[in-house]
TrEMBL record:
Coiled coil: none
GO biological process: phosphorelay signal transduction system; regulation of DNA-templated transcription
Location of 4-aspartylphosphate modifications: 55
Response regulatory domain: residues covered: 6-120
A Pfam family that the UniProt record links to this protein: GerE
SMART domains (alphabetical): HTH_LUXR (SM00421), REC (SM00448)
Entry keyword set: DNA-binding, Phosphoprotein, Transcription, Transcription regulation, Two-component regulatory system
KW DNA-binding (keyword) present: yes
Gene3D superfamilies noted in UniProt: 3.40.50.2300, Winged helix-like DNA-binding domain superfamily/Winged helix DNA-binding domain
Domain HTH luxR-type: 136-201
Organism for this UniProt entry: Bradyrhizobium canariense
PROSITE patterns: HTH_LUXR_1, HTH_LUXR_2, RESPONSE_REGULATORY
InterPro entries in the record: CheY-like_superfamily, Sig_transdc_resp-reg_C-effctor, Sig_transdc_resp-reg_receiver, Tscrpt_reg_LuxR_C, WH-like_DNA-bd_sf
Name the UniProt record assigns to this protein: Two component transcriptional regulator, LuxR family
Length: 205
C-alpha cells in the first residue's frame, strides 16, 4: 500500500542507503536518498512534506548538526536518527534537539516502518503527543525513589556497576531495580527507556 508523504534517507554508507531504499520502498513509502546532510539541505527548500531518516555519525554535517540547522530554518520535518550500539548520550542530545525518535543499529525493519508511519502522521497529532507525554510522566511518578535514581543512571549512559557504586548497593540489586523500572515504564529495551525519559521531561538541559 502506498503511504502518504516522502521519506528522506540520509546516510554516507551506500550499502545502508540501498538497503533502506529496498525496505521502505517495499513498505509502500516514496523514498529519496542522500549521501550527505549537505546534499539534503541543498534540496530542502524544494521538498514535499515528509520525514527524515538520518544516520547520526557522518562526515561533514553529522546528524546532530543537521537537527540544529533544521531547527533554525523555516522547514520543520520530523526526524528519526540511527545510532550505533550504545550511543545513548548522542541519542539523548538528538532528541533534545527535536528528533522524533532514534534507532540503534542493527534494528528491526518493522520498528523503523512503524516509526516512519508515526512521523508522517505527526503533523496533526499535537493533542495525541501531549497525551503521550502525560502518560510517560505518570509512569515515572509510579517509580520509587531508588528506581528513579537507577533509571536516571541508565538513561544517562551509566553502567550497572557505576550506578551500584554511586548508591552503595550491589550490581545485583541494581539489576532488580532495573527490571522494576523496565516493567513500570513498559519499556522493552534501553532505547525505549531513553525515549520515555525524554518525553517525561527527565532529561533536560
Amino acid at each position: 500500500m502506498s503511504q502518504s508523504g516522502k521519506v528522506y534517507v540520509i546516510d554516507d554508507d551506500a550499502a545502508m542507503r540501498d538497503s533502506l531504499d529496498f525496505l521502505l520502498g517495499s513498505a509502500g513509502f516514496h523514498v529519496q536518498l542522500f549521501d550527505s546532510a549537505q546534499t539534503f539541505l541543498d534540496e530542502l527548500p524544494r521538498m514535499e512534506t515528509g520525514c527524515v531518516v538520518t544516520d547520526i555519525r557522518m562526515p561533514g554535517i553529522d546528524g546532530i548538526e543537521l537537527l540544529r540547522r533544521l531547527n533554525s530554518g523555516v522547514r520543520r520535518l520530523p526526524v528519526i536518527v540511527m545510532t550505533g550500539h550504545g550511543d545513548v548520550p548522542l541519542a539523548v542530545e538528538a532528541m533534545k534537539l527535536g528528533a522524533l525518535d532514534f534507532l540503534e543499529k542493527p534494528f528491526e525493519d518493522e520498528r523503523l516502518v512503524s516509526m516512519i508511519e508515526t512521523a508522517l502522521s505527526q503533523t496533526d497529532n499535537g493533542s495525541k503527543n501531549e497525551a503521550i507525554t502525560a502518560d510517560m510522566a505518570s509512569r515515572v511518578a509510579s517509580l520509587t525513589q531508588r528506581e528513579h535514581q537507577v533509571m536516571l543512571g541508565l538513561v544517562t549512559g551509566q553502567s550497572n556497576k557505576v550506578i551500584a557504586k554511586e548508591y552503595d548497593i550491589s550490581p545485583r540489586t541494581v539489576e532488580v531495580y532495573r527490571a522494576n523500572v523496565m516493567t513500570k515504564m513498559q519499556a522493552g529495551n534501553l532505547s525505549e527507556l531513553v525515549r520515555f525519559a525524554i518525553r517525561a521531561g527527565m532529561l533536560k538541559d
